Automatic annotation (TrEMBL), chain A:
Signal peptide start-end: none
Annotated protein name in UniProt: ABC transporter ATP-binding protein
InterPro entries reported in the protein's UniProt record: AAA+_ATPase, ABC_transporter-like_ATP-bd, ABC_transporter-like_CS, ABC_transpr_MalK/UgpC-like, Mo/tungstate-bd_C_term_dom, P-loop_NTPase, Transp-assoc_OB_typ2
Pfam family, one: TOBE_2
Keyword Cytoplasm included in the entry's annotation: no
UniProtKB/TrEMBL annotation, chain B:
One Pfam family this sequence matches: BPD_transp_1
Residue spans crossing the bilayer: 46-68, 103-123, 135-157, 182-207, 228-250, 289-310, 338-363, 400-422, 434-456, 462-479, 514-535, 565-587
Record's protein name: Iron ABC transporter permease
GO biological process: transmembrane transport
Species this protein is from: Streptomyces tagetis
Gene3D superfamilies: MetI-like (1.10.3720.10)
UniProt topology in membrane: Multi-pass membrane protein
Family as reported in the entry's similarity comment: Belongs to the binding-protein-dependent transport system permease family.
InterPro entries with a match to the protein in the record: MetI-like, MetI-like_sf
Domain ABC transmembrane type-1 residues, every copy: 99-307, 396-586
Region: Disordered, residue numbers: 1-30
Cellular component aspect of the GO annotation: plasma membrane
Subcellular location as annotated: Cell inner membrane; Cell membrane
């Protein structure tokens, strides 16, 4: 539905022309350095990454609020931006809905007027009548559970209500594509969690197509159909939340999403999708490896702490079982972490809080082969 | 320039900053607290507070008291009467005409300044216009070119017969001289241009405080650029714009330089020039002057109060507060060169042209349009005349004495008052804050008149000395000094003082060794600022100086009255050079403390 092709945006340029001239000299720094992705109808597509990774710039380029240096943006059959053909549809002609991080609720207007604004500024030919405006605003407010606040000044709403108002305003024109720029980041932790499900429910019920920008990995995992993990202006991996988490394509993705144990290793043998590797502390077996490397390659092993099984006794009948010593333990309420030392390596384990092993205890731990992820060395 | 008094900032809510014993139940009534305070042994701190109250009260209230007393009771003293008002406003149509001119002039200037200032601020903050550096260079004009010089420059440019614009531009091109600077429109033009940088700075602050995503979300909603401007930007900035407009209105109403130089020639009177005229006529009708002054004071006070009220109420418009917004300038695209040209034109007309013509005039024997002949006869004679003029050195010396004296006294007083207001729970500190803020509503000319009422009567030999100028400047600039001192004070955490106290330092040791050093940057910036504005002060000085006690601004005024335009220009160039020096020092010092320009003439 939305296609973004080799989108680039360089720093501190003020017009496309001057940027191009400077990029010829090869000294430009890019905020977004060539991004490609596609958003399918009815999906919530997330751009995830740390601050300064270019996710917001990418979103604003799709919105038309920022002029990309290069690239092509197509929505449905319409070209919104094309640097080669000098096409740049102005933001107000793109027909998108957008929710801003600050909500950008107009403080001088009432709740109703905030939502009716997009309908009122439509070109005369398309503008709905007064009655229809009232109906559609009513609907949008109903969906976001703000029906009772219609005549209030917008500033008299709480944070969560303002957030929903921003959503209602973006929904009221029934745009083909919704852009959500960190919409939950200004809410407190409790509210943020409930709004995640609320947003996801709305998106599913109304069958919205949306691009969602966030730096919060758990938010991204909960809400998205697909995630693009961005770093330094580039996309590191695009995939479903589970893929991103269990099969990180790069070290950055593995580090950024959740926590991980990393080990350098050398590939010893490859049989089908089974790969045996040697680490400094011993041999590991990985199963279900897509695109297996060749024997002799150096790879990075990533193991999630919750995939490490910890026990006081040697089990013997499981692969990848190592011996070690508990160095520290950290109780976090719903989970407990044990750091286990193996030689000079520290392995983090995360388990049910019932388990509690005192530091200094000799333990055994194992990793199921299908939980061992191979990441190419950058 | 925010005119909100420090009492609107409620940092003093912090109970931790309360010195002295905590109030026990039943002792909370102000009277009780006051009594308790009086019963306490007299401390250095208490003494200081007491002295501050007396000095500030004296500066702010005594002149106003005398003004009201002398106007209503007359110097003859036969009960309250409105005779003075009848003489001033009744009988002829002149008063009506004057009122009309005053309002026309003030409204026109405010409108011009607001339009220019807002447009410039929008372009500066919200677009990717070229030459952004020029905006702030232009915004320095009211600081470094005093009103009296700016008006003179425009006389050189817009005089119907000798003005360069007429003789070089319109006469050859269109065969007529349409520009007449000696008209209300001319006055509005000069005053409006002189004030535009002040509105510019106010509106830049307003634009920066506004979340740009408010406009972006309107664009995303499908609104065109014009619709966004009309339905989002302007309504959101309306409180700031009205407040700025009111301030410009008051500033114009209080301005004496522009109406004095441009209006008096053709008998166009406004309040200020009327007061001046009445006091220069014989016999002097002090009552009538006082009646005009009170009229002006009332209108000015209403404007300031209304503007302060609007500024406070406009805070309701903040949704997500305390965030620094990422600047996301609108790309002008094809309009960029035209906007850039506009910026250059603005800079040319408001800075280069007036300053250039002043320099040009200072090099001539008598003022005339440049031809190959006059350009060949440029001379430094005027500068020679200025440097050999004995009065010039006296005036410079007097300006320095009064300026440095006023700056020192004001900043010392302001530091103490700011401390009392922000850091203590002393009873009456709000009154003290209000008192220190009061002089901002008193027009310079009104203050001059009121002070002459006070000291003509007083047996102490103050009238006719430099001391009266010092008192006048201290009064006028106390509110500005307060702004610097209280912002410097507010930047400091009360815990710094508390930790000094816990470490065993006495109050005075804390003040001297912790507070003063930490505030010194802000205090110094305020000190230089007051020195700068003192150099330009004319409107109260003109009623208070006596022969032999001239200051620089008065000397310039005298050159104008004697028709010595080229000497005036040379003197002006020297003064501008001096002010450029002072202002650049002030900027270097004040960068951290938000040095703001204003146009207190």
């Amino acid at each position: 539905m939305l296609t973004v092709e080799s989108l680039k945006k360089s720093y501190d340029d003020t017009s496309g022309r001057s940027a191009k001239r400077k990029s010829d000299q090869g000294t430009r720094v890019y905020a977004v350095g060539g991004v490609d992705f596609e958003v399918h109808e009815g999906e919530l597509f997330t751009l995830l990454g740390p601050s300064g990774c270019g996710k917001t710039t990418t979103l604003r380029a799709v919105a038309g609020l920022e002029r990309p240096t290069e690239g092509r943006v197509t929505l449905g059959g319409t070209v919104l931006f094309d640097s080669d053909h000098g096409v740049n549809v102005h933001a107000n002609r793109r027909g998108l809905g957008m929710v801003f991080q600050s909500y950008a609720i107009w403080p001088h207007l009432s709740v109703f007027k905030n939502v009716s604004f997009p309908l009122e500024v439509m070109p005369r030919a398309k503008r709905p009548g007064r009655k229809e405006i009232e109906d559609r605003v009513g609907q949008a407010l109903e969906v976001t559970e703000l029906g009772a606040y219609s005549s209030r000044p917008a500033t008299k709403l709480s944070g969560g209500q303002q957030q929903r108002l921003a959503l209602a305003r973006a929904l009221v024109t029934r745009p083909d594509l919704m852009l959500l720029d960190e919409p939950l980041s200004n809410l407190d932790a409790k509210l943020r969690e409930s709004m995640r499900f609320e947003l996801k429910r709305l998106q599913r019920e109304l069958n919205l197509t949306a691009i969602y920008v966030t730096h919060d990995q758990s938010e991204a995992l909960v809400m998205s159909n697909r995630i693009a993990v961005m770093n330094k202006g580039r996309i590191e991996q695009i995939g479903k939340p589970r893929e991103i988490y269990t099969k990180p394509a790069t070290r950055f993705v593995a580090e950024f999403i959740g926590t991980s144990n990393f080990m350098e290793a050398k590939v010893v043998s490859v049989t089908g999708d089974e790969v045996a590797v040697d680490t400094a502390q011993g041999r590991l077996l990985a199963r279900g490896v897509e695109a297996p490397p060749a024997a002799g390659d150096t790879v990075l092993i990533s193991v999630r702490p919750e995939c490490v099984d910890l026990s006081r006794e040697r089990r013997g009948d499981v692969p990848n079982e190592w011996a070690g010593t508990v160095l520290t333990r950290a109780f976090m309420g719903d989970v407990v972490d044990h750091i286990v030392g193996v030689g000079d390596l520290e392995i983090r384990n995360r388990s049910n809080p019932n388990l509690s092993i005192a530091p200094g205890t000799e333990v055994y731990f194992s990793v199921p082969p299908d939980k061992v992820t191979l990441v190419p060395v950058d | 320039m925010t005119l909100a008094s420090t009492s609107t900032t409620s940092r003093d809510d912090d109970p931790a900053s309360r010195p002295g014993p905590a109030p026990r139940p039943g002792e909370n009534k102000p009277v009780d607290r006051l009594l308790r305070l009086l019963r306490r042994p007299l401390s250095f701190q208490g003494l200081l507070v007491g002295v501050a109250v007396v000095v500030v009260g004296y500066l702010a209230l005594v002149p106003l008291g005398y003004l009201v007393h002398d106007t209503f009771l007359g110097s003859g003293g036969s009960g309250v009467s409105l005779d003075a008002f009848a003489r001033a406003y009744g009988g002829n149509s002149q008063a009506g005409q004057m009122l009309l001119n005053s309002l026309w002039f003030a409204v026109g200037s405010a409108a011009l300044a607001l339009t220019l200032g807002t447009a410039l601020a929008y372009v500066q903050v919200r677009t990717d216009t070229p030459f952004k550096g020029l905006f702030f260079a232009a915004s320095l004009v009211p600081l470094i070119v005093p009103g009296i010089l700016y008006s003179t420059s425009w006389i050189f440019l817009g005089d119907p017969s000798t003005g360069l614009l007429n003789s070089l531009l319109f006469k050859p091109l269109f065969g007529s001289s349409p520009i007449n600077i000696y008209s209300v429109w001319g006055m509005i033009w000069v005053q409006g241009l002189h004030l535009a940088p002040v509105t510019f700075l106010l509106m830049v602050a307003a634009f920066r405080a506004m979340d740009p995503s408010l406009e972006e979300s309107a664009a995303m909603s499908g609104a065109s650029r014009l619709t966004v401007l009309r339905r989002i930007t302007v309504p959101l900035l309306r409180p700031a714009m009205i407040s700025a407009a009111l301030l410009m209105f008051v500033q114009s109403l209080e301005s004496f330089e522009v109406p004095g130089l441009l209006g008096l020639q053709n008998g166009i009177y406004v309040f200020t020039s009327r007061i001046y005229f009445v006091l220069r006529a014989y016999p002097i009708d002090y009552g009538a002057a006082g009646a005009y002054a009170i009229g002006l004071l009332v209108i000015a006070a209403m404007g300031v109060l209304l503007s302060g009220w609007l500024q406070r109420s406009s805070r309701n418009f903040q949704t997500v507060g305390g965030k620094a917004f990422r600047p996301r300038p609108v790309e002008l695209g094809r309009a960029r060169p035209y906007v850039g040209a506009g910026v250059i034109l603005y800079f040319l007309v408001t800075v280069i042209l007036p300053v250039g013509v002043l320099v040009y005039a200072s090099l001539l024997k008598y003022y005339t349009a440049p031809t190959s002949k006059t350009l060949g006869r440029l001379t430094l004679d005027n500068y020679r005349a200025v440097f050999t003029m004995p009065l010039a050195f006296t005036a410079l010396k007097n300006s320095l004495i009064v300026g440095i004296g006023a700056a020192t006294a004001v900043m010392f007083l302001a530091a103490i008052v700011a401390w009392v207001v922000l850091r203590t729970k002393a009873p009456g500190r709000r009154v003290l804050d209000l008192l220190a803020f009061t002089p901002i509503v008193i027009p310079g000319l009104v203050l001059g008149l009121a002070l002459s009422f006070v000291y003509l009567r007083m047996p102490l030999p103050i009238y006719g000395t430099l001391l009266i100028l010092l008192i006048s400047y201290c009064t006028r600039y106390l509110p500005y000094g307060m702004r610097y001192a209280s912002s410097a004070m507010a930047q400091m955490s009360p815990e710094l003082e508390e930790s000094a106290a816990v470490s065993g330092a006495s109050w005075f040791q804390t003040f001297r060794r912790v507070l003063l050093p930490l505030m010194s940057g802000g205090i110094l910036a305020g000190w230089v600022y007051i020195l700068v504005v003192s150099f330009r002060e004319l409107s109260s000085t003109i009623l208070l100086y006596s022969p032999g006690k001239e200051v620089l601004s008065v000397l310039i005024w005298e050159q104008f009255e004697n028709g010595q335009f080229t000497t005036l220009a040379a003197l002006g160039v020297c003064m501008v050079a001096l002010l450029v020096l002072l202002v650049s020092v002030a900027y270097r010092l004040g960068a951290r403390f938000g040095l703001q320009s204003d146009s207190a003439n």
